Structures are given as structure tokens and as C-alpha cells.
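Notes to self after the Tuesday call (sharing in case useful).
The group wants a holo model before anyone commits to mutagenesis around the pocket. I volunteered. Ligand is aspartic acid. Logging inputs and output together so the record is complete.
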Amino acid sequence: MVKILTYFIAIFLLIGCKNEEESSSETVKITEKAQKTEENFGIVIHGGAGTILKENMSDSLEAAYKSKLKEAISAGYEILKNGGTSLDAVTHTINIMEDSPLFNSGKGAVFTHDGTNELDASIMDGATLNAGAVAGVKHIKNPIDLARDVMQKSEHVMLYGAGAEEFAQILGYKMMDTSYFYSQNRYESLHRVLEKEKEKGENQVSFNDPFIKNSKFGTVGCAALDKQGNLAAGTSTGGMTNKRWNRIGDAPIIGAGTYANNATCAVSSTGWGEFFIRSVVAYDISALMEYKGMTLQEAASEVIQKKVPALGGDGGIVAIDKDGNVAMEFNTAGMYRATMNSEGKLIIKIYKE
Ligand code: ASP
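Result:
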């Protein structure tokens, strides 16, 4: 009898210990998760890369760029800080830059050869690998919103031109008059290129021509990590000055202009789009992390400092990884950029440093 009792007591104690072990390891897990999510949210943005030189910039223009970058990133940061999603932070941050004529996206987009504005945008959700994109839209105030609606309210990933706008109308979007997108300096940039084309001959002015290169910056993009550990990235642009034949750049191409995957990182690109498409820039950075075990910074510099220039392209990216590490990598003279970490530490830069 005593033996049987001792046996039951021993079993009871064993089960008790096991439960304690399980619950304590669960506690550890929960604590770790809580620490990770509390500490690691963050956001990074760009407002375009290119030949951005201090000597060509007035103090007031520099201050205007910095203040808009600060306004945009702070809005996204607040969303993240209050427990909002990375998708909301990316969308809202990009909206602020789309609405500013300082950037080549939404209002202030560059002009096509025919004097119109054709807007491209894309967004990706790192949690689900769902994505949405629009290209060549002409009447949408905030193309990143429509890209998000393509992702969340259609079966598709990418819609183009009139069809994309028909979809927007069904959703109740206001169709903007094309005059909304007009900005004097972008229009003058186009006319400088057209003048040059008159001298050199039709189609003889390459995207590599300084006139075009120096007048195209301002694509906007954002990558964010939220407290739930979800990554998202988005990009919005007017493309490149004097583009024609419905040219589409990298910004609406998932994997080139935008990519996000909770297993690795979220990336938004800016630069000479043709080369970014051919180098599949945003996905390549993620793939180098996933398959080669590179850090975000190693992967970003591999692609931006080696692969893209080897083909003859230029530009940059902003990215954030699943642990909140940020990369702002570019091979041009400058890139409008800013980042904010979970402690609210803000960095805003324009030139190489
Ligand atoms: N990547 C954009 C495009 O090629 C332009 C830019 O980012 O400056 O359309």
C-alpha cells in the first residue's frame, strides 16, 4: 500500500514539475516576444536618389525637403508606436509625400514626352506576401492607396491605365483633373529635355543624359516593421522625365521596386528603373538574406554597390529587416532619406556622408 502511495505521489510530482517547466518556458517565450515587438518596430523612407548635390541646393529648399521628410516619417512612426500596422504606416507616410510637390509622385510628378503625368505605385505585405500595384494612372491623387486596394479588394496584383482607373471609380475614388499634378519646375525640366531633343534629334536623348538624370528625382518609398513583427514596403512615382510609349519603370514591379517578406526584410527602390527591373533589386536583397544568410546591410550593398552599377544603372534603396535593422544604400550623389527607430531616434539625410 505504502509502495503504491509513494508511486502515485512520485507521478503526481513529476506531472507537476513538467507543467511548471512548460509554463515557465511559455512565459519566457511570451516575454521574448513582448520584448522583441516592443523594441523592434521601425520605419525608413526615401524621397528619391540622384545627382543631388549640396552646391545645387538652396538652404530654403533643403529645409523644405527635410521638414517634409520629417512630417512624413513622424506620421508613420506614430501609427507604429500606437500599435498600428506596417501597411497603414507605409500607406500614410507615402500619402504625405505624394501630396507634396517636392517629390516625383502624386502632385509634382515628372512629365512624359507628351506633357502628361503617368503614375506608378506598388505595395507589399510581408506577412502574407500579398501585393498590389498600379501603373500609368493619370487621375489618381494617391496611387499608393489604389495599389493597396488592388491588393486587398481585387483578385489581381497589377492593374494598368484606364482599367486601373475604372477599378478606382467602382471603389468611389475621385478622378482628379490632370492639372492637379502640374508643377512648374517639372514642366520646365521636360521642356529642357525637349529642347535638347530638337538639337540632337528625335529619341536621341538617353535617360542617361544629365538633363534627364538631374530632373527625375523624387520617387518616394517607405519600409516599416510594426509591433506585431509584420513588415511592409511601398513605392510611388511619376517615373522618369520624357518617358514615352507608356514606359513603366521599376516602382510598380513587385520584386524590383518593392518587396516585403516577414522572413527577411522590406525594401523600396529608387533609381534608373530599367536597371532595377533587370537586377530584380528588392527581391534580390531579400533572397541574399534568405539563401546566403547575409545581413540586410551586406545584401543591400552587394546589390546597390556591385550588381546595379555593373549593368550601368544607378539609384538606391531603403529597407528594414525583421529585427528592425535599417539600410539606406545608394550609389548616386545623394538620396533623400530618413529613418526612425522604436525609441523615436530620427535620422534625416540628403547627401553622402
Ligand atoms: N525608379 C523610378 C523609375 O524608373 C524613377 C526614380 O526612382 O527616380 O520610374
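Two things stood out.
The CA atoms of residues 73 and 198 lie 42 Å apart.
The chain has two domains: 1-38, 41-351.
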